[in-house]
Amino acid sequence: MGCIAICLDNKTLTRYPFPAELVNQRMREVLTCNHNFIEEIINDLLESQGKMLRPRLVFLAASLYPHDPVMVTDVAVAIELVHLASLIHDDVIDQAQLRRGRESLNSRWGNQASVLTGDYLFASAFNLVNRHNQKEILDGLTSTIKTMCAGEIKQMSLAYNLDISEDEYIEKTHGKTACLFALCCKVGGLASSMPASGIKALEQFGLCLGYAYQIIDDLLDFLSESSLLGKPCGSDLLEGNITLPVIYALKDPHYGYQLKNHLQTKPLDSQGIMEIVQILKKSGGIEYSLNLSRRFLARGIAGLNELPATPARKEIIDMAAYLLDDYYKSLSSYNTMEAKGASS
């Protein structure tokens, strides 16, 4: 589908169905080079596109005010390139074999080619933003990448640490996910004529959405089938990544001791993961995490009252609600299946 555009002072106020084909085409243009091996890797990478949530946020944020559609497209592409580069590097670090249900880049092409491909994507993102001479956007992009790297290092330092606090979890979630969500909304505003107060509100919305999104993703690591996740269930625990439902359950006076015993049993097998999931449910760790994700989302949406009550604002809220409702339904589906299994 196309988009509805109103021209104002050489800029455009656009209400989107998100132009996924345009973004994909621009991404391929930016990454094209005269080297068959690189082209082959890039084609492999772009065959497994996800929801493109981050570029969607850029477009939706920009659509609130008049903007240059060409700049917005390039900024959205740059954000997606940074996201893809971070996933490639994460898979190398984690020695992941799967990504989105397919063989990971490092599994297929090796670590050296994968690291350099990630670097190639980062460099392409910087180059693309730099063409528009938008210093504040470029500064935001580079500082966010710095935060993401620090977050990954923080997560490595906390691996297998059963004494991790909820505050430390929120801090690493900021670096792992939330800071990039915040940047998507911020740069969308910066690429338009949006006033500073609106950009700040959008940035906070993106931050809260990122926290909610990561908490749900961490829950799904325990509660979804491998085929839906595109990776093995319980992979966070297997990698030593202690997430919120586990942190909460470890503090429980009754279930905490049981959970700690399970977590200290190595290696964890599928039966052990299943028993841990039951402890997380009985201790309230699942419910607590789910409720916290909803509170983050509600806080972010409430902050959007700073923006004019336009159809574009409603689209941002609807997109966030739709995204997380999809995840909530996945969790509800799991609970329903489990209840049926228990009664049979």
UniProtKB/TrEMBL annotation:
GO molecular function terms attached to this record: metal ion binding; prenyltransferase activity
Cross-referenced Gene3D superfamilies: Farnesyl Diphosphate Synthase
Named cofactor requirement(s): Mg(2+)
GO biological process: isoprenoid biosynthetic process
SUPFAM superfamilies: Terpenoid synthases
Superkingdom classification of source: Bacteria
Xref: Pfam families: polyprenyl_synt
UniProt keywords, alphabetically: Magnesium, Metal-binding, Transferase
Similarity comment: Belongs to the FPP/GGPP synthase family.
PANTHER family cross-referenced by the UniProt entry: ALL TRANS-POLYPRENYL-DIPHOSPHATE SYNTHASE PDSS1, GERANYLGERANYL PYROPHOSPHATE SYNTHASE
Protein name: Terpenoid synthase
Gene source species: Syntrophomonas zehnderi OL-4
